[in-house]
Specification:
The protein contains no helices and 44 strands. The chain is mainly β. The strands form 12 sheets. The protein has a 6-stranded antiparallel β-sheet, with no helix packed on it. The protein is globular. The relative contact order is 0.08.
Length: 683
């Protein structure tokens, strides 16, 4: 078993704190909260729908329409601890879980703040001190047992954890099956859940079915989905008018006049805003009529430029203070300046929550990586993975299902497709394998981790003038199955991601016609694909980058060679047989070396090179379809911004790697807001 049911996160070395009032277990290991996706999309409730990884029906796993549900964060909370003496109640505590495929179900709503309408939960599953090798499978209660595991462990370890998003099954429960001969102790934490918004659960403290009854002089009329409530004249005759407080002249039974008595109206009788300037005679209110304890005198002065009013004195004078410095929207750091380095960068967030960047050292012809020392990546540990005997051009980096980096690149000596599998999280060393040495492989490779937990690499094979994919045979990708996807002079600037259907989606350029094309894989190994042309208006399709938006559809950034523009294509369906096209930036020659990701706000963020001004820029999409965007220049110090690559860090903020051509350095930009703009004020 090497993949997790429904969703995977990275391995976590420890667990959250226990619930308030529960005694911590000896040797408890506290940690901070783990990352969870901002949205989770339940599958539609169709009898024909099956999980593409396991082939099992999942109709009973989720109820409701296939609409992305938002993540509701909770303080990390311990839900289950089966260890003896843990203090957890029956059903969530001891006894330990027996092995040999024994199953135990746990009802989730009602604990740790999980509500009854939660459809899926962000869990962290941990096994404690197992003495034998084994794994667990976690899945919604009431469905068939899946064939994939959630957590695998070796014998005689202290603890091992893995985060996963699991939908709730029958009765809001999940089922855990233990595979392996030994009894284990299970610890489960939660940090949030996914549920619909905008649902009214109660009205004036009433729940369930509520009856709306018409009262006196009131009618209720239903019409379709509309309920009209109207008042009805109850009739009756006025026989007398009395004079209230501050008035004289009443009571009146036939005819008469009600007047305001002298000093009859007090401030308590006036509604806020009832007396306006139009109701006062000119000059009627002067300084003599102003109570300084009740009314503010007219402001007598103002503040100098660069400062703002902090308070106003009773006499109308003001207190000023200098404006604070406007915060920048990003920070810039130089990670490697040893020679001409930093071309063909690719960045991803490692299983330790820190950035990992692959790139090319032109001076020494080496493949190198930089492992960030902190979330903002203001410093990094630099390692050489491959020396000049097998130099690494056009790198692409992904984090494998084993939590280690996997890098595809072009060996410029033999023009072969190779991969480097990191030996540890910081990637100070790696094992190298050759996947395709059958002929010259053109520049640009792209790698993603498939729904089967194995690498999927898109690249152009120059010898056959075709787009090819290599599907790794194992996690380390020591070998691969090679398939030709499009042999019509295609495969330039490829970019691959995994779609919401669990299948590969590849964007690329057809060389002879310069069209933007996509290939939607027909299966997990991508031995075949459906090919579609999205844009053929002029010379387009350069420097493509593809990701999956929060709506579950592909979003592709690319360069229009004819107009010199940055463009995006928003797929119309999961297979991307059509798309809506938009120009985001047309100021000069822009959109070189694009890279797209989805920000923590659920909107696209694109990094790219402005060739006219030699700057690094970003475009933050204004909507899910990215029909417009907010543009910002991040770095303009020299010729910078080539070979850009963007991802979202563990802090939820964009992290961009790029090349400084003026100094020949590897640089990163860390944004301090989701829009990655110099200053943001939300109203």
């Amino acid at each position: 078993m090497d993949t997790c049911f429904l969703a995977l996160s990275f391995l976590l070395p420890a667990l959250a704190s226990p619930l308030a009032g529960e005694q911590p277990y000896p040797d408890e290991i506290p940690i901070v909260s783990w990352q969870a996706p901002p949205f989770w999309t339940p599958p539609p409730p169709s009898a024909e729908r099956v999980d593409p990884r396991s082939g099992l029906p999942i109709m009973a796993a989720v109820a409701g329409a296939a609409t992305p549900l938002p993540f509701v964060a909770l303080t990390p909370c311990r839900l289950i601890d089966t260890r003896a003496g843990s203090g957890f109640p029956s059903g969530y505590g001891p006894p330990s879980l027996p092995g040999a495929q024994a199953q135990r179900s746990f009802t989730i709503p009602g604990r740790c703040g999980i509500p009854a309408d939660a459809q899926a939960v962000s869990f962290n599953f941990a096994v404690w001190a197992p003495v034998t090798r084994g794994d667990i499978r976690v899945f919604p209660a009431g469905i068939a047992t899946p064939t994939v595991s959630t957590l695998n462990w070796e014998a005689n370890i202290l603890a091992l954890a893995n985060a996963a998003i699991v939908s709730l099954g029958t009765g809001g429960a999940i089922t855990v099956q233990v595979d392996g001969p030994g009894t284990i102790d299970l610890i489960v934490d939660v940090n949030g859940y996914y549920s619909p918004l905008g649902v009214v659960n109660s009205l004036n403290a009433l729940g369930g079915t509520i009856t709306l009854a018409a009262g006196a002089n009131t009618t209720i009329t239903p019409s379709g989905q509309t309920l009209t409530i109207s008042s009805v004249n109850g009739g009756g005759t006025v026989t007398s008018v009395a004079a209230g407080a501050g008035l004289t002249g009443g009571p009146i039974t036939t005819a008469g006049t009600i007047s305001v008595s002298s000093l009859g109206i007090t401030t308590s009788m006036l509604a806020d805003g009832a007396v306006t300037s139009g109701k006062l005679a000119t000059g009627a209110v002067g300084l003599a009529q102003i109570d300084a304890t009740q009314v503010q005198a007219r402001i007598a002065n103002t503040c100098l430029p660069g400062s703002t009013i902090q308070s106003i004195n009773p006499d109308g004078s003001v207190v000023c203070a200098a404006n604070p410095a406007v915060p920048t929207g990003f920070s810039l750091s130089r990670l490697d300046a040893a020679g001409a380095v930093g071309q063909y960068t690719s960045v991803a967030i490692g299983s330790d929550g820190l950035g990992l960047i692959s790139y090319f050292d032109q001076t020494n012809a080496d493949l190198k990586v930089a492992h960030c020392s902190n979330a903002a990546c203001t410093a990094a540990t630099v390692s050489t993975l491959v020396s000049a005997s097998q130099p690494g051009y056009f790198t692409s980096l992904a984090i494998g299902s084993d939590g280690l980096g996997l890098i595809s690149y072009l060996d410029s000596q033999g023009a072969w497709l190779r991969v480097a599998h990191c030996s540890n999280v910081t990637c100070t060393a790696a094992t190298v394998a050759t996947l395709d040495n059958t002929g010259f492989t053109s520049p640009y490779t792209s790698i993603a981790i498939g729904s089967d937990g194995l690498g999927l690499i898109a690249y152009r094979h120059e010898g056959s003038a075709s787009l090819k994919v290599a599907h790794c045979s194992d996690v380390a990708c020591t070998a691969a199955t090679i398939s030709t996807i499009d042999n019509l002079n295609s495969g330039f600037f490829p970019s691959v991601t995994i779609g919401s259907d669990g299948l590969g989606l590849i964007s690329y350029c057809r060389y002879d016609t310069h069209d933007l094309k996509v290939a939607h894989c027909s299966n997990v190994t991508c031995t075949g694909a459906t090919v579609s042309t999205l844009d053929s208006a002029g010379d387009v399709g350069g420097y493509t980058s593809v990701t999956i938006g929060s709506d579950g559809l592909g979003l592709i950034s690319y360069h229009d060679f004819t107009a010199g523009d940055l463009k995006v294509a928003h797929c119309s369906n999961v297979t991307c047989t059509g798309a809506a096209l938009s120009v985001l930036d047309g100021a000069g020659v822009v959109g070189i070396d694009t890279s797209v990701t989805i920000g923590s706000d659920g909107l696209g963020l694109i990094s790219y090179y402005d060739a006219t001004n030699a700057d690094l820029k970003v475009a933050h999409c204004s909507n899910v379809g990215c029909t417009a965007a907010t543009l910002a220049t991040l770095d303009s110090a020299g010729d910078v911004g080539g070979s850009s690559s963007v991802t979202i860090g563990a802090d939820g903020l964009p992290l961009i790697s790029y090349y400084d051509a003026t100094n020949g350095d590897l640089k990163v930009a860390h944004c301090s807001n989701a829009l990655c703009t110099p200053y943001v004020r939300r109203r």
